[in-house]
Amino acid sequence: MKIAFYGTKPYDRVWFEPMGKEYGFDIHFIESSCNRETVFMAKGYDAICIFVNDYVNAEMIDILYEMNVKAILLRSAGFNNVDVKAAEDKIIILRVPSYSPEAVAEFSMAMLLTVNRLTHKAYNRTRDFNMSLNGLMGVDLNEKTAGVIGTGKIGQSMIRILNGFQMHVLCYDPFPIEGLEAEYVSLEELFKNSDVISLHCPLNSDTRHIINKEAIALMKKGVYLVNTSRGGLIDTDALIDGMLEGRFGGVGLDVYEEEEGVFYEDRSNDIITDDNLARLMTFPNVLVTSHMGFFTKEAMQAIAQVTLENAYALENGLPLVNQVGKEMVS
Ligand code: NAD
Q1: What distance in angstroms lies between residue 146's CA and the mean position of ligand 1's atoms?
Q2: For residue 185, what are the CA distances in angstroms to 3, 171, 194, 259?
Q3: What residue owns the CA closest to ligand 1's atom 37?
Q4: Does 99 contact ligand 1 (Cβ within 6 A)?
Q5: Per the residue annotation, which of 291, 298, 309, 327 is the catalytic one?
Q6: Is 160 designated active site?
Q7: Do 104 and 294 meet the contact criterion of CB atoms below 8 Å apart?
Q8: Could you say which DSSP state residue 292 is in?
Q9: Domains and CATH numbers, the chain
Q10: In the annotation, is 230 catalytic?
Q11: pLDDT digits (tens, 9 = 90+) for 118-139
């Protein structure tokens, strides 16, 4: 199988190059992300392999189909960046549904602890021998209430971590499950009663801007918000307004609505034209990271393994256990 591998970073090659050889795949690594301009580079390939900031819309599905590309191999769990309905009967979509939920949940907790205890600021200060504590006071998490939105694999892992901090955990999910050390409540109750809110649901038409002006108005003053899920879950304008009104104790954003083309790139010498992103960076209690919740050795290895297993199953007519179908989108 010939695979055009978009958005390649050095750390992708570390895992995919040797494993791809073992499978006998012919992988062509492309640095550019997959978009309307670069999709034509897939001509002559059987499959394309893409990541979260690549996209494939309906027009590109038709282009790929005409070029006889048979599959889109997502090296991610989320599939909001592909027009799944348009791909039906044309191109098979395969994903990595789970690689290390713990990687993302642990990172969510790291973000929460950072914006609460301001360790990022303390690090910079002490390196400069500024040993002052002014402005570095946080709050105890012990006995506080956390709200988890989305109780899938990552949400469940996050609940276990929050339980470890002896927090009372509220959660919301339209498909509740049993056996969690957490209490399912309505979204409104979760917003009203949580000291910490962590987002772990997928981005779809129901969840886009689930954190909006109205939701923020319901939240406790001084609430901590962490988003390691997808940027589109938060209405950034409403978040900035809430920040300016002093409503948040701290905010951790591993994902951002307009992250495409910025995240995963070194833009340190560029003029940043995204005013919202620039504004977010000015708040002392906002931590923005570059969509890296997944980024552990264990997760990277599992992503490569499952992505290539998906390709192998497709090539050999085996059951496609990780196929994404139109019934999975609302
Ligand atoms: P999952 O499919 O196991 O769980 C998602 C949960 O969200 C499900 O229980 C589902 O019922 C629930 N859900 C669906 N609609 C909802 C709604 N309207 N309100 C609340 N909950 C809703 O997925 P997962 O593996 O736990 O991943 C969650 C998300 O994390 C992914 O969709 C992806 O966007 C994100 N993610 C981010 C990173 C990162 O590096 N930052 C890595 C992996 C995944």
Answers
A1: 17
A2: 45, 6, 11, 31
A3: 229
A4: no
A5: 291
A6: no
A7: yes
A8: -
A9: 2-99+296-325 (3.40.50.720), 101-288 (3.40.50.720)
A10: yes
A11: 999 999 999 999 999 999 999 9
174 lines ligand 1 (CB under 6 A): yes
Is pLDDT at 98 greater than 80 in this prediction? yes
CB neighbour list of residue 22: distance below 8 Å, 6 or more residues apart: none
Of 75, 95, 200, 230, the active-site residue reads: 230
Q: Which structure tokens are listed for 314?
A: 């497709």
**Alpha carbon distance 79, 254 (integer Å):** 17
Strand 26-29 with 2-5, pairing = parallel
Choose among 173, 4, 146: nearest CA to 72: 4
Contacts for 179 with CB less than 8 Å, ≥ 6 apart: none
Report pLDDT digits (tens) over 26-85.
999 999 999 999 999 999 999 999 999 899 999 999 999 999 999 999 999 989 999 999
Q: Taking the model in full, what pTM does it have?
A: 0.93
Average pLDDT, integer, range 269-284:
95
Told to judge if 214 belongs to the known catalytic residues of this protein, a careful annotator would answer: no
Q: Identify the CA nearest to 211 among candidates 194, 161, 107.
A: 194
Of 188, 259, 298, 309, the catalytic one is 259
Q: State whether residue 61 is helix, strand or coil.
A: helix
H or E segment and range at residue 149: strand 145-149
Tokens of 96: 């990595």
Which amino acid, one-letter code, is at 192?
Answer: K
Q: What distance in angstroms lies between residue 281's CA and the mean position of ligand 1's atoms?
A: 26
